[in-house]
Amino acid sequence: MIKKSLKKYISNVIDKSKNFNITEIIGDASKRKYYRATCNRETYVVMDSFLEKKNFNNFVKFTDIFKKNKIKIPKIVNLNTRKNIIIMEDLGNNLIFNKTNKTNYNKIYENSILNILEIQKIFDISISLYKKEKYFNESLLFVKWVLDKYCRLNVSNKDYLRLKKSIFFLTNNINHNNNKVVHRDYHSKNLFFKNNKTIIIDYQDAVYGSPLYDLVSLINDCYRDINVNSQNKFIKLFLENYNENNKFKFSKDEFNYNFNLLSAQRHMKASGIFCRLSIRDNRHNYLTYLNRTISYIIKATSNYKNLRIINTFASEAINNINESNNSSCRTR
User: Fold this and answer.
1) What CA–CA distance (Å, rounded) separates 66 from 200?
2) Under 8 Å between Cβ of 148 and 168
3) Alpha-carbon span 248 to 164, nearest angstrom
4) How far, in Å, CA of 183 to CA of 327, rounded?
5) Kind and range of the H or E run holding 173
6) What is the spatial distance between Cα 237 and Cα 110, in angstroms, rounded to a whole number?
7) In 3-state terms, what secondary structure has residue 199?
8) What whole-number distance in Å separates Cα of residue 296 and Cα of residue 268?
9) How far, CA to CA in Å, does 289 sit from each of 94, 166, 221, 224?
10) Cα 178 from Cα 294, distance rounded (Å)
11) Is the N or the C terminus of the chain less surrounded, counting Cβ atoms within 10 Å?
């Protein structure tokens, strides 16, 4: 919906006497558009999903599920299923990407980790399973969009088959037997901290998947560094609480193995999406995070023989990216 029409729509829904100012919120990696509607001190966030009907329907579905299970989400002011528009509360400057400091850092992250465990208590038969095929196809985004299209590395047919075999090994060796509800994009730009509560946004892709997936997303965050001491502290908090409250209990070795497999898988997907956004959609802002994201792949695959080929190509991609004058690694 164009801004002029959106402005009129919001006034009609909220208050016809109010003249709202509409500004676009930049930063989401999807086709959805977000706007801030402001009139004096009254503000709302508007999600326009005209181009994403399926995701909009999922958003509505999970809004109901999370609300029913007392997971904190933005308050919905108005929902229009015909226009695929949602008006919701404005959570203000409470995004944890911006809000954390030395004083509140541990409190915010510890709360966000405990919130993962609350989400995992949900049981709903309408929630889809994060299938092995999905893990696999997402991982292949790294090969197509990072290695081939962005870095233009010459991946031979032999190496391509080796990469596929390694990714197949990776996605098959994730523990698929103890799935929990996962947000699937649980990081510092999708979490707010307000009134001592973690509030989630962009939750429409939730599935039943590995109980470690959201933890990986949070502490191996594409958008910010978290030091090793903090990571270890947060992992301990998660693992102690998870093992205390679940029949299946992760041993330290199994936890570390699954954490690394999931970190490699998630960041192959994420780096592929970042490059695809740049090449296909002319949206280059996510390239800022590409180096960090691929570095997670290198770290996660460094100690496993069956993942060596992934490690080799991820290292080669980093080398290309870091050579600023290397014409073989640029957007087309």
Assistant:
1) 10
2) no
3) 30
4) 38
5) helix 157-173
6) 8
7) strand
8) 9
9) 21, 25, 10, 8
10) 28
11) C
Please name which of 309, 272, 329, 264 lies closest in space to residue 158, comparing C-alpha atoms: 309
* Total residue count of the chain as it appears in this document: 332
Rounded distance between C-alpha atoms, residue 261 and residue 243, angstroms: 20
Report whether pLDDT(27) > 70: no
The DSSP result for 105-128, as a single string, is: HHHHHHHHHHHHHHHTT---TTSP
Quote the DSSP letter at residue 7.
H
CA distances from 108 to 167, 170, 194, 214 (A): 34, 32, 10, 15
- In which element (H, E) is residue 198 found? strand 197-200
Give dist(CA 165, CA 203) in Å, integer: 31
Above 90 in pLDDT, residue 167? yes
Contact 111, 72 (CB under 8 A): no
Contact present, 216 and 262 (Cβ < 8 Å): yes
How far apart CA 123 and CA 229 sit, in angstroms, is 33
Nearest residue to 79 via CA among 47, 127, 43: 47
Buried b (16+ CB within 10 A) or exposed e, 216-230: bbbbbbbeeebeeee
Burial of 102 (0-12, 13-18, 19+ CB in 10 A): exposed
Per-residue pLDDT tens over the stretch 270-322? 999 999 999 999 999 999 999 999 999 999 999 999 999 999 999 999 999 98
Beta bridge partner(s), residue 38: 21, 43
Encoded tokens for 201? 């946004």
